[in-house]
Design goal:
The protein is α/β, with parallel strands linked by helices. It folds into 3 domains: 123 residues, 3-Layer(aba) Sandwich (Rossmann fold); 119 residues, Rossmann fold (3-Layer(aba) Sandwich); 136 residues, Rossmann fold (3-Layer(aba) Sandwich), CATH 3.40.50. Helix content is 43%, strand content 13%. It is built from 20 helices and 14 strands. The strands form 3 sheets. The protein has a 6-stranded parallel sheet, sandwiched between helices. A 4-stranded parallel sheet has the order 3-2-4-5, sandwiched between helices. The chain has a 4-stranded parallel sheet with strand order 7-6-8-9, sandwiched between helices. Helix 1 packs across helix 7, helix 7 runs parallel beside helix 11 and helix 13 packs parallel to helix 17. The longest helix has 21 residues. It is globular and about 105 Å long.
Length: 469
C-alpha cells in the first residue's frame, strides 16, 4: 500500500460508519460479467457471494450469474481445493460457460491457500472435461482494496491467462479496419461504453472493449434462458488482443492491465485518467485522428459545439458552489476535475483506499480515506453531495441535494444508462448538475443581502447630529 502524503489523510476509526466501498471480489466479478458466456465464481463462504449478488441485482435490476464454492467449517480448516474443483466441474457440466472467473475472498486469503497452484492442478488433471472453457484467477481479498482494484485484477488475469503472448502478429490489410483495444475503468456505465464504441467506430476503427458490460448488463432480455452472461467481450477477442494497433486504457487503475498487455504482445498503450471534460476529450479525439488518419467526423464536431454551448450556459450555476464527493479514487478524480473545471470548489473529498497515485492529482485541499460518516462530517455547508445511494441519509440530515453516482445506485432507475464521458456525456453532466442547483435554490433573506440591517448603532454615532437626521 502506498504511503499517504500530507494531502491524503489515512483512516483512523476502528469501524466504518455507513460504509462507502464495495469489496475487491465484487469488483472482479463485475469485470467478469463483461465477458460473453462467463460465470464469476466466489471462492469462499456463501455469505460473501450473497451480499455481492444483492448489490448487483439492486443496482442493475437484472438476473446476475454468480456462483460460490460454498466452503463450510471443515473446508475452512482442511483447505478448499476440493470445493473449488467440484464447483468448477459442476459449472462446466451444468452451464457450459466459456469463462469461469475465480474470485478469492477473505476466507481463503486469510487461510493462505495457494489458489493459483490449485487451479493449475485442476486444469491439468481435468483438461479433457474443461475443454472449451477458460478458467482464470483473480486474488481479491475482501479485507484489502476495493471495487477498483478487484476490477483491474480481473482484467489483468484475463489478459495474462487468455491473450496469446508474443509480438503483434500482423499489420491490418488495406481494406481491413485497424483494431483498437480499449480497457475501460469500472466507473464507466453501460451508456459510456456504448458511446465510446460509437466514437471509435466513427473514425473507421474496430474497437475491442474488455470488459464490455454494455453487452451483458444493458437490460437486453434473451429469447431463452441463459445461465451465464449474455453478451459482452468474446473470449476469442480477448485471445486476439495482441493484433491491435493501439491500446487505450481509461482510469489510473487500468494502467496495470495495459502494461501487462504491452509486455505480452508489444501493443503500445495510452492512458486517459478521465474522459470527462473538454480538454480530455479533445486529446482522445486527436489520438483517434492520428491512429485512423481520418478527419474528425461532422457529428463529433457537432457534439463538441454543443458542449461548448453547454459550458457557456451552465457555468453561471457552478461558480462558487461547494461540492462534497465520496467515490472510488478514479471516479473521485473524474468528478472533482469536472466540478473544478466548471468553477466549483471541492469542499470534501472522501475515497476508499490510498493505493492509487491519482489521489495526488485530485483538486482538493485534502482527500480523506474513509466512509460516508466522514463525508457527512466534512460536508456541512456544501451545496451538493455526490456519492452512491447509501449517501441519501446523510444528504437528508444535512439538507443538501444528492447527486447519485457510482455503485450501487438502487433507489433510482437507469443509472447504468447515464452518460458521463466524451462531449455528449460531459454536456449531460453539466445539465444534470445545473438543474439540481436550480431546483434547490434558496431565496436570499434581507439579512443575507444587507449584513448591517439589524446591527446595533454605537452610542457615539447615535448621539451625533447626523444620526438625528
Amino acid at each position: 500500500m502506498r504511503k499517504a502524503d500530507g494531502r491524503v489523510l489515512s483512516q483512523t476509526k476502528s469501524a466504518a460508519v455507513n460504509p462507502l466501498k464495495s469489496s475487491q471480489p465484487l469488483g472482479a466479478a463485475f469485470a467478469f460479467l463483461g465477458v460473453d458466456g462467463a460465470m464469476p465464481l466466489f471462492h469462499g463462504s456463501q455469505g460473501c457471494t450473497s451480499f455481492a449478488l444483492v448489490l448487483f441485482v439492486r443496482h442493475f435490476k437484472e438476473t446476475i450469474p454468480l456462483q460460490t464454492t460454498a466452503m463450510d467449517e471443515v473446508a475452512t480448516i482442511l483447505g478448499g481445493a476440493d470445493h473449488l474443483e467440484e464447483a468448477i466441474l459442476n459449472l462446466k457440466t451444468r452451464t457450459k460457460p466459456k469463462l469461469i472467473g475465480v474470485c478469492t475472498t477473505a476466507l481463503v486469503e486469510t487461510r493462505g491457500e495457494d489458489c493459483a497452484s490449485d487451479i493449475a492442478t485442476i486444469k491439468l488433471k481435468r483438461a479433457e472435461e474443461l475443454a472449451g472453457t477458460e478458467v482464470v484467477l483473480a486474488n481479491t481479498p475482501d479485507f484489502d482494496g476495493a471495487i477498483e482494484e478487484g476490477w483491474a485484477k480481473a482484467v489483468t488475469s484475463m489478459i495474462e491467462g487468455i491473450t496469446r503472448p508474443g509480438a503483434r502478429a500482423r499489420k491490418p490489410k488495406k481494406k481491413e479496419k485497424k483494431k483498437i483495444a480499449i480497457l475501460p475503468g469500472w466507473n464507466l456505465t453501460v451508456a459510456d461504453i456504448e458511446h465510446l464504441r460509437e466514437m471509435v467506430e466513427a473514425f473507421g476503427l474496430e474497437p475491442v472493449i474488455l470488459p464490455d458490460v454494455s453487452g451483458s448488463l444493458d437490460g437486453t432480455v434473451p429469447d431463452r434462458w441463459v445461465p451465464t452472461t449474455y453478451g459482452g467481450t468474446h473470449v476469442e477477442d480477448i485471445r486476439g488482443l495482441g493484433t491491435a494497433v493501439q491500446c487505450i486504457a481509461v482510469g489510473e487503475h487500468m494502467r496495470r492491465p495495459a502494461e501487462v498487455l504491452h509486455r505480452l504482445t508489444g501493443v503500445p498503450y495510452v492512458l486517459f485518467q478521465s474522459l470527462t471534460g473538454l480538454k480530455s476529450v479533445d486529446r482522445f479525439v486527436s489520438l483517434l485522428t492520428v491512429i485512423s488518419g481520418a478527419a474528425v467526423p461532422a457529428k463529433v464536431r457537432r457534439r463538441r459545439a454543443q458542449l461548448q454551448d453547454a459550458l457557456l450556459d451552465g457555468h453561471f450555476h457552478f461558480g462558487g458552489k461547494k461540492i462534497a464527493i465520496a467515490a472510488e479514487p478514479d471516479q473521485l478524480y473524474q468528478l472533482a476535475t469536472f466540478f473544478t473545471g466548471m468553477g466549483s470548489e471541492i469542499a470534501a473529498a472522501v475515497t476508499t483506499t490510498d493505493a492509487s497515485k491519482i489521489l495526488e492529482k485530485v483538486p482538493a485541499e485534502s482527500v480523506q480515506i474513509g466512509d460516508l460518516g466522514d463525508l457527512e462530517r466534512l460536508a456541512a455547508g456544501a451545496d451538493l453531495l455526490v456519492t452512491h445511494s447509501h449517501g441519501r441519509q446523510a444528504a437528508e440530515r444535512l439538507g443538501i441535494p444528492l447527486m447519485r453516482v457510482g455503485f450501487p445506485v438502487f433507489d433510482r432507475l437507469g443509472s447504468q444508462h447515464k452518460l458521463t464521458i466524451l462531449y455528449q456525456g460531459t454536456r449531460d453532466l453539466i445539465f444534470e448538475v445545473a438543474n439540481i442547483f436550480q431546483a434547490n435554490q434558496h431565496a436570499p433573506t434581507p439579512e443575507a443581502l444587507d449584513p448591517f440591517r439589524n446591527r446595533e448603532m454605537p452610542d457615539e454615532l447615535r448621539s451625533s447630529p447626523l444620526a438625528r437626521h
